[in-house]
UniProtKB/TrEMBL annotation, chain A:
Keywords: ATP-binding, Cell membrane, Membrane, Nucleotide-binding, Repeat, Sugar transport, Translocase, Transport
Listed SMART domains: AAA
PROSITE patterns: ABC_TRANSPORTER_1 (PS00211), ABC_TRANSPORTER_2 (PS50893)
Protein name (database record): Ribose ABC transport system, ATP-binding protein RbsA
Major place of residence: membrane
Bilayer topology: Peripheral membrane protein
Single annotated GO MF: ATP binding
Domain ABC transporter span(s) in chain numbering: 5-242, 252-499
PANTHER family for this protein: CARBOHYDRATE TRANSPORT ATP-BINDING PROTEIN MG119-RELATED, D-ALLOSE IMPORT ATP-BINDING PROTEIN ALSA-RELATED
Cell compartment(s), UniProt: Cell membrane
A GO CC term attached to the entry: plasma membrane
Keyword set includes Cytoplasm: no
Length: 513, 352
């Protein structure tokens, strides 16, 4: 059977940077096809070529055996090629229903939008996909990230695509939501839809995909049947070298209890945080686990002073930290690498060096004037230390790949030399190689005596990386796991509230009493 | 043992994401209407009398701004701004007063009216082309075209004057049912005189409510809320902007005709205050200058707040010298009240 959508010999360059050169992918109807590669390998650029966001410089895209060239995403969508991007395409100020039916709103006889029917159809669509918890009349701005991603997927599926492209479309979802989405995708495949799937979670690819095409440095490396290829084989294709141990070795436990760098006592914030107490010791990585949205992110924001009206006490190196002011948190020695690097971690149009030095300007400025030499030296040091791939310190951050952007976001805080790092899902949406570098970096930081409080939606990171893990549920810490108890199974059962020991249940009861 | 104390299974936890309550969603709108009602109540109480004549004065006072504000609202919703609104009002006022003919007032006024609307829409189209396809900053484009429109107005009408047919003036700014009662079906009748401006206001509201349900309206909101997301959703971004600016020009042209009727003359500076006042009305009405959020219903109230303030101050014997001071303070106060919600926001990132 000829492929439904096939791109051959695609080349695309941005300025001097070659994004694609000799790239190819072919997806058949009724197939889920993974597109794999490290960040910067050209996956996203390929998707943009396929769905009409960017025209290729060279090469050919065949759809149904005929060459096509789309002028814009609307033209691609009109013939049935519909993408879902990691960078969301929802309009924040419009309702869920308005977004789902953007451009194809049901209209009454006189041509006006039939709002009632639109909301009804939206509710039906959401229910059909199993996302019934989302109100079609809610404004998208008010939805949590995961729900927005579900709406985004519903929006694409509602267009009845012949080719559905999912580019990191599940990155913010919980495991259960991912399963939901996968069921939908499988149903589409069985009905003859071609699905192109991009994810950094290899287990998702294994779980869902039939075949995989691997890119490296903008070139097609190979296409394999997912079942017939080993994990190592695929990773070797992606990074061009064999994958060794994913997580760095854990050091022998140090006497953490004696010295708590960060001591949090009965932290509360409205309904979202209910009396959270925890410590992070010198040289310790403490993981925050649990279902998505149980207050883990709020805890990090509250510690860093982003929230007003936080109750409780935070001690850093035994000194109290003034709550509700990020500058006070910074001065005390806290650093937050936020989840959303594009809006909260970085200032995209500014250069690498502006971003790296933003939190430490007083140190590289004299009487308010920034010293270009000091700025450059600091940037180059961080670039070498974190292996940031950039054309130079002056390159705007928005041109860097996701992994490299995240490194810049981390570099900014490394430079501030905090005692405790708060990391909010630092490896979300970045490739395997960059992930390993960040893992190694976290270990290097703790070896130097820093403490790390680490929230990840990826359970394997909590298990593989953390010395201790705190499981949160509805704003409270319900379980602490360490040593041999720190396993996938224990984390999952604690997260959904099925406790095996009386201790866990008792803690929860105490925390919410 | 502890299963009883354990939280419910995940399925039961799927809290429905609720729509924010009506009062919260429409807080800004209710605020500006509340402010307007207070000002009107003060006016009615303080005015020596409130006859049809005063009613007409009040209804007319904000009409130019209400009409021009419709256009400004559309442009602000796209995330842009139109600084050429005022000079366009002046230009179409000057134009209308120049092409009319004392000998054939009726037919020449038809021509003048059509020409004013056409010139307004044409000027808006130029703004739109430069902004949407020329990819220039709206503030610069409309600052430049504002000077051009103002220059043409002065060329057409170096001195105030010209002719506006009295019948036309009465049609737009007079009083209806003053002489004869309106007989309604079922033996009912309406006997109270009504300012004609009220009909135009009702028409503006109806027009907005209909427009709100068109695809164009959704696209204008979408473009202003997130241009990138709109593009990715297949919205023709440039076309939506082009429409917004063109309609804004059309509205300014219509506002020029209202000014012509109300002043019965042509003046090359007649509408200039409408630029900043229309922006003030939009902001008072609760729209976000960043685009994507707001409603004409707010702008309408905002326009009348701005128009009624001078009359209210007059009754309190405040010198006209201080009117601007008061007007500006009330604008700051209203915008400040509308922003009060910010202090309740406990996640400081949301305020950005």
């Amino acid at each position: 059977m000829p492929p439904l959508l096939a791109a051959t010999d695609i080349a695309k360059r941005f300025g001097g940077v070659v994004a694609l050169d000799g790239a190819a992918v072919a997806c058949e109807a009724g197939e889920i096809h993974a597109l794999l590669g490290e960040n910067g390998a050209g996956k996203s650029t390929m998707v943009k070529v396929l769905c009409g966001v960017q025209p290729p410089d060279a090469g050919e895209v065949l759809y149904d055996g005929r060459p096509i060239a789309f002028r814009n995403p609307a033209a691609a969508a009109a013939v049935g090629i519909v993408p879902v991007f990691q960078e969301l395409s929802l309009i924040p100020d419009l309702s869920v229903a308005q977004n789902l039916f953007m451009g194809r709103e049901p209209r009454s006889r006189i041509g006006l939008i039939d709002g009632r029917r639109m909301r009804r159809d939206a509710a039906a669509l959401l229910a059909e996909l199993g996302f019934a918890g989302i109100n079609p009349a809610a404004t998208v701005r008010d939805l949590p990230l995961a729900e927005r991603q579900l709406v985004e997927i519903a929006k694409a599926v509602g267009r009845k695509p012949r080719v559905l492209i999912l580019d990191e479309a599940t990155s913010a979802l919980t495991a259960r939501q991912v399963e939901h989405v996968f069921a939908v995708v499988r149903r589409l495949r069985d009905a003859g839809t071609a699905v192109v799937f991009i994810s950094h979670r290899m287990d998702e690819v294994r779980d869902l995909c039939d075949r995989a095409t691997v890119f490296r440095d903008g070139t097609h490396v190979g296409t394999v049947a997912v079942d017939g290829a080993s994990h190592e084989q695929i990773v070797r294709m992606m990074i061009g070298r064999a994958l060794r141990e994913v997580f760095p070795p854990r050091p022998v436990p140090v006497e953490t209890a004696s010295e708590a760098l960060l001591d949090v006592r009965e932290l509360g914030w409205g309904e979202a945080l209910r009396g959270v107490s925890l410590t992070v010791g010198r040289g310790e990585i403490v993981g925050l686990a649990g279902l998505d949205g149980q207050g883990q992110g709020d805890l990090l924001f509250a510690l860093f002073g982003v929230y007003a009206g936080v109750t409780g006490q935070v001690l850093l190196r035994r000194r109290p930290v003034r709550l509700g002011d990020p500058r006070a948190a910074m001065a005390a020695g806290l650093a937050l690498v936020p989840e959303d690097r594009k809006t909260q971690g970085l200032i995209l149009p500014l250069s690498v060096s502006n971003n790296v030095t933003l939190a430490t300007l007083p140190r590289i400025a004299r009487r308010g004037v920034v010293s270009p030499g000091a700025e450059r030296a600091a940037t180059l040091t961080m670039r070498d230390r974190l292996a940031i791939k950039t054309a130079g310190p002056e390159q705007p951050v928005r041109f860097l790949s996701g992994g490299n952007q995240q490194k810049v976001s981390i570099a900014k805080w490394l430079l501030a030399e905090p005692s405790v790092f708060l990391l909010h899902d630092p490896t979300r949406g970045i490739d395997v190689g960059a992930k390993q570098e960040i893992y190694a970096l976290m270990r290097a930081l703790t070896a130097q005596g820093h403490g790390v409080l680490f929230f990840s939606t990826d359970l394997s990171e909590i298990v593989g990386l953390c010395d201790r893990a705190l499981v949160m549920y509805e704003g409270a810490v319900v379980r602490e796991l360490a040593g041999d108890d720190l396993t996938d199974a224990n984390l999952v059962s604690a997260a959904v509230g099925v406790t095996e020991t009386a201790v866990g249940g008792g803690q929860r009861a105490a925390a919410t009493a | 043992m502890s299963l009883a104390a354990a939280p419910p299974p995940p399925a039961a936890r799927d809290r429905a994401v609720r729509r924010r309550p009506f009062l919260v969603r429409n807080a800004r709108l209710l605020l500006v209407w509340g402010l307007l009602l207070v000002l009107l109540a003060v006016y009615v109480r303080e005015a020596p009398q409130f006859r049809p004549r005063e009613q007409r004065t009040i209804a007319n006072s904000g009409l130019t701004l209400a009409v021009a504000g419709l256009g400004q609202t559309l442009v602000v919703l796209t995330g842009g701004i139109d600084l050429s609104v005022g000079p366009m009002v002046s230009l179409t006022n000057s134009l209308a007063s120049s092409v009319t003919d004392q000998d054939s007032p009726r037919s020449s006024m038809w021509v003048a009216g059509a020409l004013a609307l056409l010139v307004g829409a044409g000027g808006g189209l130029i703004n739109g082309l430069l902004v949407a396809y020329g990819r220039l900053q709206p503030i610069i484009v409309t600052l430049a075209t504002a000077s051009v429109w103002g220059g043409i107005a002065l060329y057409l009408r170096p001195e105030p004057g010209g002719f506006i047919p009295p019948a036309f003036a009465d049609l737009l700014s007079g009083t209806a049912f003053a002489q004869q009662a309106l007989s309604l079906p079922f033996g009912l009748s309406w006997e109270r005189p009504l300012p004609r401006a009220v009909f135009f206001l009702a028409a503006l509201v109806a027009l907005w409510l209909l427009f709100r349900r068109t695809r164009l309206a959704t696209r204008i909101y979408a473009v202003g809320s997130s241009e990138g997301a709109a593009y990715m959703s297949g919205v023709h971004v440039a076309r939506a902007k082009l429409w917004a600016y063109t309609l804004a020009g059309l509205a300014a042209g219509a506002a020029g005709l209202v000014t012509s009727a109300q002043t019965s003359t042509g003046n090359a500076l007649s509408g200039n205050a409408a630029t900043l006042n229309s922006i003030a009305a939009v902001v008072l009405g609760g729209a976000s200058l960043a685009g994507g959020a707001g409603s004409y219903l707010g702008t309408l109230a905002g326009a009348y707040v701005i128009a009624v303030i001078p009359s209210v101050l007059f009754f309190y014997g405040v010198s006209t010298f201080y009117q601007q001071l008061f007007q500006g303070s009330i604008l700051l106060l209203a915008v400040g009240l509308g922003a009060l919600g910010v202090f309740r926001i406990r996640n400081r990132l949301e305020r950005l």
